[in-house]
TrEMBL record:
It comes from the Bacteria. GO terms for biological process: DNA-templated transcription. This is LysR family transcriptional regulator. CDD domains: PBP2_GcdR_TrpI_HvrB_AmpR_like (cd08432). GO terms for molecular function: DNA-binding transcription factor activity; sequence-specific DNA binding. Belongs to the LysR transcriptional regulatory family. The keyword Transcription applies. Keywords: DNA-binding, Transcription, Transcription regulation.
Length: 295
């Protein structure tokens, strides 16, 4: 069994030895100089050694004190280092990314395992909403917004642009332009009206075909639901080729004919007024890399 003096006495001695002053040691440990003096006196009684020479307005270590001080100093430093390391290991970093429901489900969510492999120390929280979030209110650290901008008060950079084309399930069989009157057109509502939205009407104009309302058209309020309807073979949908790239590659969807028309641009957006933390930088760099790989 170890025979050691009280920890409070050892702390008082180490602080007094480091500062060369009982008063400064008292300030550091938030006690009175008298309390420091008592603690050191009790340590000297415990060890049977004189550890300080008391001089006017200062104290000086004796030979015994000089031998004891570095042992305690290094021990306390090591103790502090280990506690800081353990505390940092327990302290998780979190990045909140906001994106539209369809982009989150079809593009971002399937990729997050790659981020976790690269950055196991950072937690991702994915916030899906078709409404733009206020990045100044700490709802999200990063937003992926779809449109043409500008984004006042924000730092925005293009991530990638996409294009739209008719896609459908292979179970509908081979289809051509002549089949457009026979197969339901799947569509979805855009959150914001814009003349350059990649709509069926704009696609017909690009294809050189007259536009007219079709019978049996399926209109969804959510882009993701339109994608699911196309996968289920319920018609032809005009969809982002980026969001359905995996389904086309796997043969779950096919692009029966063209043309494709340009969509808008996905932007990485963050608040201009907030300092950028290193873990947010890591998430931004990862998103850029994923976009380059998808291009």
């Amino acid at each position: 069994m170890r025979r050691l003096p009280p920890l409070s006495a050892l702390r008082a001695f180490e602080a007094a030895a480091r500062h060369g002053s009982f008063k400064q040691a008292a300030n550091e440990l938030a006690v009175t100089p008298t309390a420091i003096s008592h603690q050191i006196r009790s340590l000297e009684q415990f060890t049977g050694l004189t550890l300080f020479e008391r001089q006017v307005r200062k104290v000086v270590l004796t030979d015994a004190g000089l031998e004891l001080y570095p042992v305690l100093r290094d021990g306390f430093n090591a103790f502090e280092t280990v506690l800081q390391r353990l505390g940092t290991a327990q302290e998780r970093r979190r990045v909140i990314i906001s994106a539209t429901n369809a982009f989150m489900a079809r593009w971002l969510a399937p990729r997050v395992a790659d981020f976790q492999k690269l950055h196991p120390e950072i937690d991702l929280e994915l916030y899906a909403s078709d409404q733009a979030v206020d990045l100044g209110s700490d709802v999200a650290d990063i937003a992926i917004r779809y449109g043409r901008g500008p984004y006042p008060g924000m730092v925005a950079e293009p991530l990638f642009a996409d294009c739209f084309a008719p896609v459908c399930s292979p179970q509908l069989g081979p289809l051509g332009l002549a089949d457009l009157d026979q197969v339901p057109l799947i569509d979805f509502k855009w959150t914001r009206d814009h003349p350059l939205n990649p709509t069926w009407q704009n696609w017909f104009a690009a294809a050189g075909l007259p536009w007219k309302a079709r019978r049996g058209q399926l209109l969804f309020s959510d882009e993701g639901h339109a994608i699911q309807a196309a996968l289920a073979g319920q018609g032809i949908a005009l969809l982002s080729l980026e969001l359905v790239a995996a389904d086309i590659a796997a043969g779950r969807l096919t692009q029966p004919f063209g043309p494709s028309i340009p969509g808008h641009t996905y932007h990485l957006v963050r608040s201009a007024g907030h300092p950028q933390a290193p873990h947010v930088d890591s998430a931004l760099a990862w998103l850029r890399g994923q976009a380059r790989g998808a291009a």
